[in-house]
C-alpha cells in the first residue's frame, strides 16, 4: 500500500492499533480470495481496491472535502443515496464487518449486541477506520433496536441524523417514508449549502440506478449452469459498491461483465462439475466478512445468490426515472425503497416470496439462512423462513454466527453435512 500515514494522522486515527489491522487484512484476503483458481481478470481492480482500502478512496474523499464537499456515512440500504449525491455530496457505506472493531464497540454496548453494530461503533470510537473519521455526518435509521440506541452513543462523537423508517408497508407508511426522504433532502441541503433541484435529483436517481443495473447484470451470470465467477467474488464486488464512487463502480462492474460474457461464450466456469448451488439469505455481510461464503465455496459448493442487503436487496427494483418534479421523484424513491423486504417490517411475507423466487431464478439446490448473533429480527424470522422452505420442499440450513473464527470448524462440519444431504 502507498504511504497514507500522514492522512490517517490528520484524520485523528490511532495509528498503532490501525497498523495491526493493516497487517492482518492482506493475509486474510490472500487466503480467501487470491487462493481461488481461474478468477476473471476484471477482479484485479477489486483486488486493488481491497489492497488500498484505507488509502485510495479515503484520499479521494479528503480531497473532496478540501473543496468544501460533504461526506455522509450510511448504515442501511433504505437510506436513499440519490438525495445525497443530488446535493453534490458523497454517500459512503459505513457498516463494520470485522471482528477487529468489535471489542471497541463492547466498551460502550452490551456484549449481546449484534457484531455489525458493535464493529461500527468500535470503528468510530477507536479511530481505526478512515471512512468513519472522514464522514461529516452519519445518517442512521430506525430499523432495529440496537441501531437506534447506537445512534445515541455515536451522536456524542459525530453529527448523526436519524431517518424514521416505518415498520409496516401500508399506503400511509409509504407516504410517511416519502416525508422522511423529503426531510432528509432538507437536512442535506442545510448541511451542504447546496440545493437539491428536480434536475439534480434526476441525475442522482440515474447515477444510483446505473449502479443497480450493473450489479443486476453481474448477478445474471450466477444463473449460468456453471457460473463464470465465484459467489465470493460477487460478494466482494457488492461490498465495494457500498463505498466506491458509484459511476466508477458501475463502469468497473460492467467491464468485468464484458469479460464474463466472453467466458460464457467460451464455456468457462469456475466450479467443479456437479457443485451444489446455494442461496444465502439473512443478515448482511459487510466488508471484510467473507466467512460463510468462504466456508461454503471451499467445501465445493457454489453460492449463486444472496437474499441479503449485500446481495439482491441492494440492487433489485429501479427508481422510476421519468418523473420531473421533486415531489414525483420523492414518491418514486419512497415506492422503490419500500419494496426492500427487511426483517424489521411486520408482516414480512414478501421476503419469503423473494426467497422462493430466488431459489427458482438461480436454480438453487438449497438455502442457508444465516443470522448474525444477537440479531433478533432475522433470528425470529428464521422460523418463518425455515417453515416456508420445508413446505416448499426446499432444503434449508439455519446458521447463527458472528465475526470470530471460533465457530469456523463447527460451521464447516454443518455445511459439509448439509451439502452431502443435498447430494443424496
Ligand atoms: S435493510 S438488514 S441494512 S437494517 S444491525 S438488523 S444485523 S441487529 S443490518 Fe440491516 Fe437495513 Fe435491514 Fe438491511 Fe440485525 Fe444487526 Fe440490526 Fe442489522
Can you give me a brief rundown of this structure?
The chain has 424 residues and is an alpha/beta fold. Helix content is 54%, strand content 10%.
What would your notes on this structure say?
With 424 residues, the chain is α/β, with parallel strands linked by helices. It has one domain. It has helices at residues 5-10, 15-34, 43-51, 56-66, 81-86, 102-106, 115-125, 130-134, 145-154, 171-192, 198-220, 231-241, 246-265, 291-298, 312-315, 326-337, 349-361, 376-392, 408-422; strands spanning 71-74, 90-93, 137-141, 160-163, 277-282, 302-307, 366-372, 396-401. A four-stranded parallel beta sheet has the order 2-1-3-4, sandwiched between helices. Strands 6-5-7-8 form a four-stranded parallel beta sheet, with helices on both faces. Helix 9 links the parallel strand 3 and strand 4. The longest helix is centred in the middle third of the chain and has 23 residues, at 198-220. The chain is built from 19 helices and eight strands. The site of Double cubane cluster has 20 residues, from helix 7, helix 9 and helix 18.
